[in-house]
Design a protein that fits this description.
The protein contains 17 helices and 15 strands. By secondary structure, it is an alpha/beta fold. The strands form five sheets. A six-stranded parallel sheet has the order 6-5-4-7-8-9, with helices on both faces.
Length: 425
């Protein structure tokens, strides 16, 4: 177990503070990434997350991209920490009865099945709220109502149809997906916000509700500034972009920020694949920056002295700065530029990140002990609450908590052994 944050749980009157979502029970019907990323955050915030999986197989990611034979993959373990697992075949009478018991017990049901899967099993929204009028039924789908509603979506499909790919990459290259999982995990964190809002609303409405997040919509929300620029095109070219020509849509512009402050990724020593630093040139830093890179004459040169003047030749400006950055490592550049308050950031590779001491100290890279695979590293909880630091625990083994969960929900039917023999567990 690893703790996100340096201090133990805050205490009040000598008693530990309850986690933010203590007492909230989550019926986790999710799989792969979009749904599990949501329910993992809820678990980290203290919710009791009960992950329902198919007997004998479980979440498909348990067996995908395995690095160790016959052991849950990192794909699964890194998206399902702090949860408990029950196996359940809802097509059997006992399995269906247990599922109905879980619906009555839990506060939130989260699912990211294909369109209509739960409906076809007899668990429509009307049936679910009949079993539990306070239930919040949360669904992550590829698309909202409309012509794409019944289509399947994956991470890069969502990026493609939400504006991410058309605005990522180089002007003369193909549309490009980002390594950050803005379609799947981006939808997951949007759903966390929606669920928390619904839980709070229930405190004064007394009833549950449907909550939906479409992956296309989540990506579009993250592309908001590009939609800003789409409308700005009506008034002429986007001068902050390095592109020479513009059509009637926002172009791909490489590593240019496209914002109010120009930026670019500049090569550093020794010239490896990620030996770059991203530098942003604000108006107030131009003078000290020009002096630092050995070009003090550019401070008062009319062709360089003002943001408007530099805007006309951004590529040349960043080329001049890169002549200097090539002489230092990205971390040496970071130190020197921060000393004169130039916003910048070295390009951190996955190796840089997983070995970064500051991230480990803050609990953003944590070591977790798994009963079968041993210790693995995972990304910690990015939501930091001062009173209740997150303790990251291992993902569950398949069906690890069958008996405990049955007892917890008050199941008084067949015992776990008989249920297993009948194919229900």
């Amino acid at each position: 177990m690893s703790t996100n944050g340096p201090s133990p749980n805050g205490a009040q009157d000598g008693e530990p503070v309850r986690p933010a979502l203590d007492g909230v029970n989550i019926l986790d019907m999710t799989h792969v990434q979009a749904g599990p990323s949501c329910t993992q955050i809820l678990a980290w915030l203290g919710a009791n997350v009960i992950k329902v999986e198919l007997p004998g197989r479980g979440d498909i990611t348990r067996g995908q991209l395995q690095d160790i034979p016959d052991v849950d993959s990192l794909y699964f373990t890194m998206l399902n920490c702090n949860k408990r697992s029950i196996t359940l075949n809802t097509k059997t009478p006992d399995g269906k009865a247990i599922f109905e018991k879980l619906i009555g017990y839990c506060d939130v049901l989260v699912e990211n099945f294909g369109p209509g899967v739960l409906d076809r099993q007899g668990f429509t929204w009307d049936r679910i709220r009949e079993l539990n009028p306070r239930m919040i039924y949360a669904s992550i789908k590829g698309f909202g109502p409309g012509k794409f509603e019944d289509f399947k979506a994956y991470e890069t499909v969502a990026q493609a149809m939400g504006g991410g790919m058309s605005t990522t990459g180089w002007e003369d290259g193909p549309p490009t997906s980002t390594g950050a999982q803005i379609g799947d995990s981006g939808s997951g964190i949007h759903m966390v916000a929606a669920i928390l809002g619904a839980l709070y609303q229930r405190t004064h409405s007394g009833r549950g509700q449907r909550v939906t997040v479409a992956m296309q919509d989540a990506v579009l929300n993250l592309c908001r500034v590009k939609m800003r620029d789409q409308q700005r095109l009506a008034h002429g070219p986007l001068r902050e972009y390095p592109n020479k020509t513009f059509a009637d849509y926002v172009p791909r512009s490489g590593n240019a920020s496209g914002g109010g402050q120009p930026g670019s990724a500049l090569r550093c020593a020794p010239g490896g694949a990620n030996d770059y630093v991203y530098v942003i040139v604000q108006p107030q830093v131009w003078a000290p920056l020009a002096k630092l890179i050995g070009r003090p004459e550019l401070v008062d040169d009319p062709a360089w002295a003002t943001p408007a003047a530099r805007l006309a030749h951004l590529d040349e400006m960043f080329g001049v700065i890169e002549q200097w950055t090539r002489g230092f490592t990205k971390f040496e550049v970071l130190d020197q530029l921060n000393a004169i308050e130039v916003p910048c950031g070295p390009i951190m590779s996955t190796k840089d990140l997983i070995e970064d001491e500051s991230l480990a100290a803050r609990g953003m890279i944590v070591d977790v002990r798994h009963p079968e695979r041993g210790t693995f590293k995972t990304v910690g909880c990015p939501l930091v609450l001062s009173d209740t630091p997150v303790a990251v625990t291992s993902s569950p083994l398949l069906g690890e908590h069958n008996e405990a969960i049955l007892e917890e929900i008050g199941w008084d039917g067949k015992d776990a052994k008989a249920l297993h023999a009948a194919g229900a567990l």
